[in-house]
Amino acid sequence: MGFRIYDASAFYAGIPFASPELGHTTSLVFEEIEHIKKCHGAIEILIQTGRLKIMDAEPQSIKVVVDMAKKTGDFQELSKADISAVALALQTGGHIVTDDFAVSNLAKNMKISIHPVMTNGIRDVGRWRHYCSACKKEFTAVNACPICGNRLTRKLLKRKPS
């Protein structure tokens, strides 16, 4: 089994604190959970005891993940921290500990193993279609229709199981 890669949702659920296993996260996820670090020294203890390592993915891995996120339609829903976690899992062969739907959909589309935190995980995997319900046109990288101004609707085009 590869590395355990924690995204922010794993920290919010307390998984790294309850698990005796070594886990990894990225510096961007580490920054995103800054408020947890201020509340208590638990994250520092994880680092000092070697149960949590902070490492970042290489730029090429990030580029591959960004390109795939744009293809799956998840890009608009992902933070830079989310992208960094998926890129680290891709690079290391690790699995992601998350409940984030966009992270899970992207990772599963990339054949990266996912371990849900507090849910059963996602059932359907596919590509998101962002479209205007008024104009019926499909768009990427925008939240509102540039033609009529309506908020775009998302629909998951399910991938057939492999």
TrEMBL record:
Function: Toxic component of a type II toxin-antitoxin (TA) system. Processes pre-16S-rRNA at its 3' end (the D-site) to yield the mature 3' end.
Protein name: Endoribonuclease Nob1
Positions of the Ribonuclease PIN domain: 6-91
Keyword Hydrolase: yes
A Pfam family this chain is assigned to: PIN_6
Organism: Candidatus Nitrosotenuis uzonensis
GO MF term set: hydrolase activity; metal ion binding; RNA endonuclease activity
Membership in a protein family: Belongs to the NOB1 family.
Gene3D superfamilies per the UniProt record, alphabetical: 5'-nuclease
Domain of life, source organism: Archaea
Gene Ontology BP annotations: maturation of SSU-rRNA
Cellular component terms (Gene Ontology): cytoplasm; preribosome, small subunit precursor
InterPro entries named among the record's database cross-references: NOB1 (IPR039907), PIN-like_dom_sf (IPR029060), Ribonuclease_PIN (IPR033411)
Keywords in alphabetical order: Hydrolase, Metal-binding, Nuclease, Toxin-antitoxin system
Keyword Cytoplasm set for record: no
